[in-house]
Amino acid sequence: MEKRFPLPPFTLETATQKVQAAEDAWNTRNPEKVSQAYTIDTEWRNRSEFLKGRAAARQFLEGKWVKELDYKLKKELWAFTDNKIAVRFEYEWHDKAGQWYRSYGNEMWEFDADGYMQKRYASINDVAIQEEERRIK
């Protein structure tokens, strides 16, 4: 398996690069591309859902972006250690009825030695907003 740079142990610079790479990938809304950043046996908690494996993550993302239309994400590095990164994030999206939301949350990430994310734990809350209240475009 090839390496996904930057690799742990993280520095401020490499942790920031990893967060930006994740933001950029998720903003493509491409489940196949995004899922490639995770180990084959990745472990996720997303809200109240528990997932195991890259294929399950890809399937989850396919459903997510069918529901969360015009999704746009911003991530911010919160903290890091050797092979772990904590981020805060917010993203905006609308449903099929046209209702806009801003979703806020925190993620805890753990990486393997090759730079793939092996654990992703996300806590997320949604707030309904008006379209004119959007901040992320």
TrEMBL record:
UniProt cross-references to InterPro entries, sorted A to Z: DUF1348, NTF2-like_dom_sf
Superkingdom of the organism of origin: Bacteria
Listed SUPFAM superfamilies: NTF2-like
Name of the protein this chain belongs to: DUF4440 domain-containing protein
Organism: Niastella vici
